[in-house]
Design a protein that fits this description.
The protein is α+β, with helices and mostly antiparallel strands. The chain contains six helices and eight strands.
Amino acid sequence: MPGEQVHAKREPSLYTKLASEGAYGPGIGSALITMVEPHPGHELSYNRWYEDDHYISGAMSMPWMFAGRRWVAPRALQLLRYPSDSAVASPVTAGAYITVYWINEGRYQDHMDWTVAINRRLYPDGRVYQERTHVFTSFQNYLGVVYRDGDTGPRDIHALNYPYKGLVVEVFDAAADQDAAALAGWLKEKHLPGKLDGSPIALATVFEPMPLPGSTPTYVKPVEGVGKRITVLYFLEQDPATCWDLFTGDGAAADGSGLGRLEFAAPFIPTLPGTDKYADELR
């Protein structure tokens, strides 16, 4: 008919196929935990690159990464960290920024295929900031959560969106004659429930690191402690500096269990997205 527009038949998009199969539930299957130290004199430019480019292009725009949040440790919080002979950070104050991302359950390999491919573009295109050091970066398998308040309050899937005021990161290594499963079991069943009870800690999530793929860029530090290490992320309703005494005894508790050693305990507060707040307080 006159004036009628004829539309060419569009071939089915690859995205349509990808969305129509495989797991698509809301649960956490794994996490990317990345703690980075900007080189001295590059704090502001590093922060702008991460805020304006990498957080989006190198993470949140990727399939199956459904939540993310950045946290920072100004110098006053860095000085609370322990132990001084940490096997995670040397010196123990290294790693001013940490970002945590949730990846959908059952989609880790799909996400990895995408992130490896996109990084092969970002690096040659000059989109990877070089004046930084990865202190503690790995994809980690989710082992579960301990809640302070049972069935009330935000779930683990909400932890990176809910406005928690603090994050504490603890890293434990299993003893030479123990395995990570026993250490994780002690944490989830014995240590964490009592620690959270009546405290400003709303929930604690438990992870174990996984090896990075062989195609990972060389600027990313190889994952250490695979098969022996457990990471705990505590989400706090107040600034961790005001309740740090809740964490100072965790090293002794781990030693007393005979199952492992606390290698890193560090408090952080959330960044203010889109700003340089705290970038001048790192030294």
